[in-house]
Amino acid sequence: MDGVMHSPTTLPAMPGMLARSLLTLLRNDESEADAEKIEHEYSLEALSEKRIAAYKNMFGGFVSDIPLSLFYCLAQRTHLAQMLDKRFPWPAPGLVHLNNRLEQLERIQPDQPFYIKASVSVPARGPQVSPRRLRPKFEVSFYQDNKEVVRCVSTYQVMKAQGNEAPRAKKPESKIEKPNWTYLHHWQLGSGLGRRYARVSGDFNPIHLHPYTSRWFGFNKPIIHGMYMMARAQADIERIEGQSANYIDVTFKRPVILPARIRLWRNTESPEGYEVRNNDNTQVQLEGKIRFPS
């Protein structure tokens, strides 16, 4: 591993951080500031067989012994620890996940703990900066035996309060017509799925849990975690390929409000490409790429 390994701090547990994250709602820093990078180092215990099994069972099984998508759950725990740093200027609940890339670089040792090297690139901010440019990028690298085994890169959008705006008229939606795409599976997502996934992933963001709490964020019903869709697609496509994925890159296009019926599509001309679409085939909810060892 490049550089000197310092004494990392133990990565805090998720429940305590979730409670503390509510206090970040008091942050309201509108002052001008240059871009900066905030860096941290953490230690993390080895993944337990029980946790790996619970995660795999959530999706009907993977080909992977340790699914790559599971590492986002660990990365997200790291993200939240970084958001609690006083140098991070925005409320943790006010961030929307835009895209995520995961890459496996070496074999993962199931019985070995992790050293984590994490950074968040905080963009320049101030009264003259467009809200759309407020997109912090989190990079998390997992090491075992001084080797980087997994890398996770995530981009979020800071959501700023908006004034009362007249609702926009909805445009008529037409069927998506894309050559060389084939429908693979449909997924029936129940109203309580967000709570089930939260217990497995540790992501108890209120927007996913219950209508009473999702209303805090402008949704009358909870929305499913974007990373649930990514993980389910990984499981489905791995079973088709009979291989373990070593690269996943997704962009979240639209929220999926629960309950829902959605569909997984795959590009037959470029098989690494896939999409999650609504049941009517008029909207793309997620765009993704998945790769396997050559």
Automatic annotation (TrEMBL):
InterPro entries per UniProt: HotDog_dom_sf, MaoC-like_dom
Top-level taxon of the source organism: Bacteria
Full protein name: Acyl dehydratase
PANTHER family, per database record: (3R)-HYDROXYACYL-ACP DEHYDRATASE SUBUNIT HADB (PTHR43841:SF3), 3-HYDROXYACYL-THIOESTER DEHYDRATASE HTDX-RELATED (PTHR43841)
Domain MaoC-like span(s) in chain numbering: 195-264
